[in-house]
Structure prediction request, 390 residues.
Amino acid sequence: MSKPIGSLVAAVAMTTALTGPAVAEEFKIGVLLPFSGVYAALGEHIENGFKLGLEHFKDDLGDHTVTMVRDDTEANPGSSLAKAKKMILQDKVDAMTGIVSSAVLAGLRDTVDAAKVPLIVANAGNNMMTGERCSPYVVRVSFSNGQVNRPMGKWVYDQGKKKVYLMAPDYAAGHQMMEAFKSTFEPAGGEIVGEAYPPLRGVDDYGPYLTAAKATNPDAIYVFFAGGAAIKFVKQYHEFGIKKDIPLYASGFLTSAAYVHVEGEAADGITSILHYTPNIDTPENKRFQEAYQAAHGKVGSEFSAQGYDAARLIVEAIKASGGDKEAFKTALRNASFNGPRGPMKIDPATNNVIQNVYIIKNEFKDGKVHQSVLDTIENVQDPVSGCQMN
Ligand code: PHB
Prediction:
């Protein structure tokens, strides 16, 4: 005999009273990205990826919800700090994400740490923020500047390039990436024959820098540039006509899928290193690329993948914490999953991601740039470098 409805309702009410009701929580996420200036393309890709990640993994949220507030950081530490403070104090966000520039990240670190509002870094690679100045509230799902450049010094030396000239924008990311290259190139026996650090903004002509580099007669040049600066640099290097004699090696942001189609033939022959390339042959990457291309009519880049993984990290932490906002903060630091770039795991000793890094060949044929993986360096993990979680 079936139970009368009245007693069923009573039974449900009793269970709820014993275990406590499951509260559907709203997680408000502040998205801080450059939507204008030299890194605007990066911001657009990260935001697109973030929204796609929320869409793909929303079922894991259960009854909880994620809402977004967003603001433009350009690549400006001063205005970014004011905008982050507004998000924390006025919008009362539960977490923030985004941040492209290492300088912007450095400017936010103390505010985030003091407010105990987690920041899920979706780009900026500043080593210090998961090193000497690490914080339990700064979790990086993207890369560190050391991680995605360090293996390249020895690799380039092993290609027979013994004398290398370095070039990168004059701010934290540029210097840290070149230092990382040097840290394996010099011990291998290589010699840095010169280096130049042009300003991040406002350089229209890299000609004088290239003239100075050529004069040192290097076997190769190693550079980092991203966004609008990368497009300009790659085109001007090509027009300068030295690539055959002095091959160009780079941190892979130089030929990001976000803009390598604009560089076109000028990207031919560049060898780069990065934690993502659109052709990774896994079900996770296929799902990501198919959906991204269907939604935006263009290939998803490392920046889009970083945004996508930031969303997934947030969703997984909400799920693991059952919606408890304190437990959510800890759960962010203990996540691991297979993303579009391959296996990834947050290292709780530093809060930087552990991931594969790929050496990539750029070839221009049949009217487009083809990027293929020459080598994979698995599970690259940063040294603790003075990080003491408080
Ligand atoms: C950084 O400032 O940390 C940065 C910016 C753009 C990139 C990579 C790193 O493509």
Notes: The longest strand covers residues 352-365. The longest helix spans residues 302-321. Residues 26-143+280-355 form a domain with the Rossmann fold fold (CATH 3.40.50.2300).
